[in-house]
Amino acid sequence: MTTNLRYHRVLLKISGEALKGKLEHGFDPAAVQAAVDRVAEVMKLGVQMALVVGAGNLWRGASASGMDRVTADHMGMLGTVMNALCLKDAFIRNGIPVHVHACSDLRPFAQRFERDEALTQLDRGELVIFAGGTGCPFLTTDTTAALRALEVNCDAVVKATKVNGIYSADPVKFPDAKKFAELSFEDALAGHYKVMDAAAFSLCAENNLAIVVCKFEEPGALAKVLSGDFSVGTIVS
Fold it and tell me: For residue 3, is it within any domain?
């Protein structure tokens, strides 16, 4: 294992949009392969990886449909399972052992989440994908990421975004916005920086689980932040 790693077991949270590339929705094979390549890069360094993926490439929820929130959230959970299966297929084709754990028994598509089994798989250096959210409506995949990261003893949650860290303001609208390399949980809360949703942020803060934000599309960024280089990201701890 590489000795200069700052984090040795992490949970990576990516959006469903990361899988659609330039398409309006669905899966872009090139985008899926790019996601696999970025994860494979850090696994080769010796990082034990768990993964949670959203469903934004397939489903936008009640706000877009006008339907009942609980029903819409259930559909979103199923969307994350579809994305997990898409990624599983891609990782297997790239020679990476991978297991999908769902919030409930969805055999033959995915096994029910078993903590001890997931820990064993991570110890073996195999990728674990957590799908189906928490199984409860009104909670996002951010919360799923924080919860599962704590359950499987991760050193950090890495939130992959479209920007290379947390800024004092939207860097697209305000080019002079300040980028933070490090923030405390208190400062992130006081500054109203929307790092993760409130439930996920509280779980991380209360359990001292670091949140790392980086630009997923930037080549090498994930490896850099996991080695402690936050010139391409931000750590909240």
Answer: no
